[in-house]
Amino acid sequence: MLALGASSVKAQTLDNADVNAQWFKTTIPVENGGQAPDVVKLLRAFHEAMPTWVTGEVLQQADHPAKGTRLSGTASIWDGKEDDDFRILVDRKNGYVDLESETDIDQMSACVWRKDNGHRIFAISLYEQHVMPQNLLCWYDYDPKTQKMTPAKGPLEEFVPSIKDADIGWSLPMTGTDFTLTEYYVGFPGITHVYKWDRKQFNFDHIEMPDFEYRPAVDSKAIHHISEGNAWTHYCMLDLTGKGNPLLAFCNFYDGEIGDLMLIGEFKGNLVSLGTMTQDGEKLNVFRGPKHRNGEDQVIVVHRDMAGGLWYNVVLGNLVQYQVCDLPNFSEADAGRTVKVTAGFGGETTDIIGDLGEWIDLSKLWRWQPLEFREE
Fold first, then answer.
1. What is the pLDDT of residues 29-52, one digit of tens each?
2. Tens-place pLDDT, residues 247-261
């Protein structure tokens, strides 16, 4: 099995902060690179310029394959230690290598693409989980004439997330050529941007989201899938308090105008609908609310249903704090309306109804993106 030697190797290697400080200004010679260097040769050149523990482990396996498992002709090994288990995959044919683990050790992946002009694109992703976790993506163009790798811009440098404080992840293709970037927000599924390779460059193609479950209301026990019903075609993130915890909005369009619309938040660990706007009468509005007890701003999503009831969801970021209902009393017409707190964390009152602040014009905030759902 693979001998780690982690303590001695790590002492001689760089961490991600060191690599990040120099990779974009470092041109790397590739010894005997030739016209068609494979992913291992390019990885070795990178390692010689900026050695890391993970790249060293992958190169050791590439040079001296340990006894392990072979998947579809690709060497894949485990170190055999249950408390620190990891897998190394070396696939020269498909231009891909990685070191992956379900434990908290550092990880990496690297990939190479061939361009029509004879150049190669080499990308390496380094994921460091110790001290200050840091994900790093380095992108190079290999020129066979000079046999050097030059730092280059990839899709990540041009990418603009829906919200500026989003966590961004990426995936290098183990098979195929697609490159993907994924936005992550607390409580919501990842939003994946797919880039297609045309042998010259990467071009944005489409956006995908998992077909996730949600509840049609905060106090509902029913479970729906987001792909059901209205067949939403577009999404956007709405950061109404500027704190980086946005609400998730879906809509579809009719003749270029928004038809149906729904806002999604989170309540007690469940994704829930905060209200819908439809062409047949259901409406929603959003208002500034009073500050939360922790001093942060809240918003209030007010939804009017078909029967004329009003539902007030008090939201902090994307988390529903509690809900107030204001309903017609159908059983006793002369009794007026029934107002009560229907869901929350305890201690809430109905006074919020009289404390609505400024109305928020969502049309000035949303930036709709076309969307495809995928099954997990």
1. 999 999 999 999 999 999 999 999
2. 999 999 888 788 899
One DSSP character per residue, 87-123 reads: EEEEETTTTEEEEE-SSSS-EEEEEEEE-TTS-EEEE
pLDDT tens per residue, range 151-206: 999 999 999 999 987 899 999 999 999 999 999 998 999 999 999 999 999 999 99
Helix, strand, coil share (%) of the chain residues, nearest 5: 15, 40, 45
Q: Could you give the CA distance from residue 263 to residue 271 in angstroms, rounded to a whole number?
A: 10
Separation between Cα atoms, residue 230 and residue 216, nearest integer Å: 13
142: number of Cβ within 10 Å: 26
Using CA atoms, how far apart are residues 248 and 212, in angstroms rounded to an integer?
12
Question: What are the Cα distances from residue 13, in Å, to 8, 53, 56, 127, 198?
Answer: 9, 6, 9, 15, 36
Dihedral class, residue 95 (left if φ above 0, else alpha if ψ from -120 to 50, else beta): left
Q: Single out the residue of 324, 304, 340, 318 nearest to residue 268, CA to CA.
A: 318
Return the DSSP state at 234. E
What's the CA gap between 205 and 155, in Å, rounded? 12
Instruction: Among 20-24, 35-39, 70-74, 226-230, name the one with the lowest average pLDDT.
Output: 70-74
Distance CA 347, CA 341 (A): 10
Which tens digit of pLDDT belongs to each residue from 211-239?
999 999 998 999 999 988 767 999 999 99
